[in-house]
């Protein structure tokens, strides 16, 4: 199996180019990445079987691609197929279920072309924020910051009009320093959700003319002036990385 690579790009370069920083020889895809300490990142990978990730595993690596020894750290990831949040203990190299809740569930109907439940995850303050692709929700609940266990009720912040599908679904999201959330929404939108709950479409997205098609993930630049959006394949374009100005 040739494996899959994780790459980096410098968006400020005159001619941005992809550089390989890690290779996962036993994976067909990598589904998530998160900081795991200074200069370290954690990535979840596995083998593709439809929407199921067979034999998932966690790698800790430096930006030079060197795989690190396990460290005493707990990471959370979304099990979108089984509708739960998984706890990875990199010190004991064990995996366990951190949270199960109906708000995380996907669709058990095998004929649904997009059955995924809980998808994007971010911790902010005492809360774990999440998107649910099948249920069309962006929500949050309080957690124990040491174990990841759920300690408060689920709050739904945004609910899409049902039914969901490839042209109506939430994917990943991020926050800016002011607490605004930016959520990728298929088919062609990134929405902004303020701390007060005001929802709007980010200019430059949400139109057929926009190059943003099937947005899958989003990040805010360090100076808080730009969004960087990754997109997937669609009938109209191939996947790519785009930037959108959000502040002067």
From TrEMBL:
<dbReference type="InterPro" id="IPR052998">
    <property type="entry name" value="Hetero-Diels-Alderase-like"/>
</dbReference>
<protein>
    <recommendedName>
        <fullName>SMP-30/Gluconolactonase/LRE-like region domain-containing protein</fullName>
    </recommendedName>
</protein>
<dbReference type="InterPro" id="IPR011042">
    <property type="entry name" value="6-blade_b-propeller_TolB-like"/>
</dbReference>
């Amino acid at each position: 199996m040739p494996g899959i690579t994780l790459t980096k790009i410098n968006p400020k370069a005159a001619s941005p180019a992809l550089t390989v920083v890690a290779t996962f020889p036993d994976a067909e895809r990598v589904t998530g990445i998160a900081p795991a300490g200074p200069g370290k990142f954690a990535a979840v990978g596995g083998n593709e079987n439809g929407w199921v990730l067979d034999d998932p595993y966690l790698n800790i690596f430096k930006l030079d691609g060197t795989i690190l020894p396990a460290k005493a750290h707990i990471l959370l990831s979304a099990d979108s197929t089984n509708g739960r949040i998984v706890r990875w203990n990199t010190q004991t190299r064990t995996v366990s279920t951190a949270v199960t809740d109906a708000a995380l569930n996907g669709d058990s109907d095998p004929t649904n072309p997009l059955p995924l439940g809980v998808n994007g995850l971010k911790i902010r303050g005492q809360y774990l924020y999440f998107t649910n692709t099948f249920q069309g929700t962006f929500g949050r609940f309080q957690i124990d910051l040491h174990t990841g266990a759920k300690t408060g009720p689920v709050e739904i912040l945004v609910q899409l009009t049902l039914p969901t599908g490839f042209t109506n679904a939430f994917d990943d999201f991020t926050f800016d320093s002011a607490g605004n959330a930016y959520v990728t929404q298929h088919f062609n939108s990134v929405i902004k959700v303020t701390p007060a709950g005001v929802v709007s479409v980010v200019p430059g997205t949400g139109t057929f003319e926009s190059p943003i098609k099937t947005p899958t993930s989003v990040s805010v630049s360090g100076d808080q002036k730009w969004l960087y959006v990754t997109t997937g394949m669609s009938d109209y374009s191939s996947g790519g990385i785009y930037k959108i100005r959000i502040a002067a």
